[in-house]
Hints:
- The protein is mainly alpha-helical and 66 residues long.
- Helices cover 70% and strands 0% of the residues.
- The protein has a domain at 39-66.
- It has one helix at residues 20-65.
- The longest helix is centred in the middle third of the chain and has 46 residues, at 20-65.
Amino acid sequence: xxxxxxxxxxxxxxxxxxxxxxxxxxxxxxxxxxxxxxxxxxxxxxxxxxxxxxxxxxxxxxxxxx
Length: 66
């Protein structure tokens, strides 16, 4: 009996017909969207890290006075 192999996938470039300018604009827009989404998250992360750092510094300074 003959073994049948599945046909190879044609790859994305066989059916995606876009020019490089459109692809570049699409990627740039993706980066802009990611920046708008991540900036508030990053701001909260940095603010929280600073707050925790100040609290740890206060606790350590109070603990050393004893």
